[in-house]
Known about the structure:
The chain is mostly beta strands.
Amino acid sequence: MCKSRFSSIVSVILVSFCLLLSNINAKILFEEDFEGGKLDEKKWHPKAEWKIIKPEEKLAALGKGVMDTAGGEANTTKEKNFKDFIFEADFNAKKGGSLTGFVFGAQDLANNFYMHQISATGSNHTPNHLRWHIRLKGAWQVFPIAFLKGEKVDPEVWYRSRWIVKNFNFKVFVLESEDFWKNPRGAKMRKIADWTDKSRQFRSGAVGFRASGGEHMRYDNVLVYDIGDDPFSVDPSTKLSTVWGELKMEQ
């Protein structure tokens, strides 16, 4: 075997090995599937309005529990150091409000954070818009922008959301949860929004959800991981935590 061919083979092996290590070491920063029957207060602040219920829909990825909320304002993770990351969660905007509220960069539970609403068809607040919010010292700033390319999100449907958060920029993608969970690695999600906070308020902080009076929403399968990682890349038979979503479907 000539030296050049041998070198090529060695290079391929080394690259493959590095990719394997990269997959195994995909860094999961936070995960929550709401399967415990009650809110895990080691991860979240106590919240009476956050109820863990059995899903009504026959969607395997929802498992035995989802989080249901219809008010109570914002609640976040106890971890406050999320910076440059990807946030994913399944969500369902119930007809009561037809809105969902996602919290990022939270410095506290009441006065300082980003809160971005996916406003679905039928909402009383600019339907099929991403309603970007800054909560600063207790005051709201809101910047509603229509979904890109005329995309639509319907109430009473489970979607998978993906938020890419880097510096002060947010990119948002969605796909029906049933389609996503059939093939998480191959799923082609639809980009619905892209926004940058030019005032550069919150570089890092906690993540979570927010609902106010008259709004009703559900969430499941929360996953936060480093940009560039693929948490669905490892063979489920390895039982690694990075494929908890796939394992949940097999229960």
